[in-house]
Design a protein that fits this description.
The chain is built from two helices and 13 strands. The chain is mainly beta and 223 residues long. The strands form four sheets. It has a four-stranded antiparallel β-sheet, covered by helices on one side. Strand 8 and strand 9 form a beta hairpin. The longest helix has 9 residues. The model has no long low-confidence stretch (mean pLDDT 91).
């Protein structure tokens, strides 16, 4: 199960059943990234504050895009690009956005129940390359997800699985028809184990590509 446990059960009868990453592993990997942008609701100032947290030894000057989505749609209600600059080895406020501005543009309210929204901070990581360079962080307008009425079960499909070289690395393309929170990927077999490039992620776009690295190169697309 996609639990928050950080210990994977290994059967004495079949060790191949163990060794998979849990939800906690993927989120700890993100939390300890060399660089990240983290949105926080500042109730005192009625702003959304985006902090840049950097373990890098050089300054970072870049841009990010702030999007707001209703849970029932993949069309952004608010999309704006911001520029920021921070020094090395620092956690610093990068940008503040007025809650009133977000509410006026989207109709989303941080204190409301019923229909709700999700805020997405989208940027290109300064430490990653290729398809994995795009990174995201999120802020729920209503953290009590059980009270959100427009968060429905999405239809998620595996559109394609393609090998990358011959070392057990695969590209997996997913699609969804609406916002999907904590999207969890797994294999129902015990022939091999491996690690996804990300897991337990939120989908706010129609398609998303992740990679999977198996523990053996002798894995086929059919497997």
């Amino acid at each position: 199960a996609p639990t928050w446990s950080s210990v994977e059960y290994v059967s004495n009868k079949d060790v191949s059943r163990g060794g998979k990453w849990k939800m906690a592993h993927y989120f700890v990997k993100r939390a300890y990234a060399d660089f990240m942008l983290s949105p926080v609701l500042n109730t005192r100032k009625s702003t959304v504050d985006i902090y840049a947290i950097s373990d890098l030894g050089a300054p970072v000057s870049d841009t990010f895009v702030l999007n707001v989505f209703s849970y029932s749609s993949l069309t952004s209600l608010y999309s704006k690009q911001f520029r920021f600059s921070v020094g090395p080895h620092i956690s610093a406020l990068a940008v503040s956005v007025s809650v009133d501005e977000l509410k006026a543009q989207t109709g989303c309210d941080f204190s409301a129940t019923g229909d709700s929204c999700i805020l997405v901070v989208d940027w290109i990581s300064p430490t990653k390359k290729g398809a994995d360079a795009r990174d995201e962080n999120f802020l729920f307008f209503n953290t009590k997800l059980a009270d959100v009425t427009n968060l429905k079960a999405p239809t998620i499909r595996v559109e394609s699985v393609s090998p990358i070289g011959q070392n057990g690395l695969f590209s997996i393309v997913l699609s969804t028809d609406q916002v999907s929170l904590f999207t969890w990927l797994d294999f129902s077999q015990n022939k091999f184990v491996g690690i996804f490039s990300e897991n337990g992620f939120h989908m706010t776009t129609k398609t998303r590509t992740v990679t999977y690295q198996a523990d053996t190169p002798n894995v086929t697309v059919e497997d």
